[in-house]
Records
---
Amino acid sequence: AQKVTQAQTEISVVEKEDVTLDCVYETRDTTYYLFWYKQPPSGELVFLIRRNSFDEQNEISGRYSWNFQKSTSSFNFTITASQVVDSAVYFCALSEAATGRRALTFGSGTRLQVQP
Amino acid sequence: KAGVTQTPRYLIKTRGQQVTLSCSPISGHRSVSWYQQTPGQGLQFLFEYFSETQRNKGNFPGRFSGRQFSNSRSEMNVSTLELGDSALYLCASSLEQMTRSEQYFGPGTRLTVT
């Protein structure tokens, strides 16, 4: 069965610090997709990135970067020079390509608090 | 482009009642999925509709149902409400069926059952 583990329940950093949010997944499929979503206090889940299992290239988007390592089943998310606006709950999610298992399975989320 | 909209945003119901939540996807998106978010269980998948057909269903009792209309708008219904149904219900839309494209979420409907 598919599973996503976000071991860090809450992280608190001071503005301008770098922070890495960990995500470890389990799946029996060879084709799957990994996602990161941000949930600010307003409640709406904001899509950040989608990565398929065949693409292990790391990605950088502004202050955000993602490190996908199939060997360790991890898809970690790093925020460089954090800002107060980054404060939110971040969810890692997994979906499999196989019929019947396409639903997003979410981790329990990591609450990030960035102090000014 | 307008985002995913959900109505109502807040709802208070009594045990035993039923409730209908509505979701309008992003224009052009044909897939709508529903998720329940609670502090105890986190985010859990309810079901997905694509071209008016339910394509996937999560592990929820039959009291939870949904449908999708020809314009891709979707509704979910919960009958015989229980206290444990209190949650944030999130709707997500995507261009194609789940996993082939990103899902974009609406602001959610916060349901409180008393």
Note: The two ends of chain B are 37 Å apart (CA to CA).
---
Amino acid sequence: KAGVTQTPRYLIKTRGQQVTLSCSPISGHRSVSWYQQTPGQGLQFLFEYFSETQRNKGNFPGRFSGRQFSNSRSEMNVSTLELGDSALYLCASSYPGQGETQYFGPGTRLLVL
Amino acid sequence: GDSVTQMEGPVTLSEEAFLTINCTYTATGYPSLFWYVQYPGEGLQLLLKATKADDKGSNKGFEATYRKETTSFHLEKGSVQVSDSAVYFCALSLRGQGAQKLVFGQGTRLTINP
């Protein structure tokens, strides 16, 4: 089975722009979660989607948003980018019945200039 | 709130040394516990997990036991290899109304010298 895939792998944007990141979960997985990883704050939970509904949200400003499609693929969007949004954005998927085990993609590295 | 605390890094060992990375947690209820590993330039890989007290997770020579009485989940390996050099994250999983969320420790960078 193919693992979690994320596109693009690298991205450079400037302050004030917006960005959309994409995540395709493992086939059959219906839950998709997003995390932000930075050297200063570590790994922080952004949000989780299940069956196209946001079930849980972390403590991030409204500039961070996401959605999930009927095929379980997910996107996250960051509007009005700030320098502090530079990070590795990780997506993880899980399968109902396998408990809370989440499987991660390789991440998208975003650099905001 | 719920949190995970890992031993400070970086940790540097010689090949074939014994490894322990300490992890303690604070949580309401009974979380599941995980160790993930991150190699340079990659995402997180699940190393092992335990879902209830006294469970032992194991994989690739690594082990960790869920200790409810000490709220700990320490990672151990009897003989490390150069290829074990990576960053290790301890995490707990919270469930609320079916939603899933991982809370991570700060990570411990491990370097193994030949």
Note: The interface with chain A takes residues 32, 34, 36, 42-46, 49, 51, 89, 91, 93, 95-107 of chain B (CB under 8 Å).
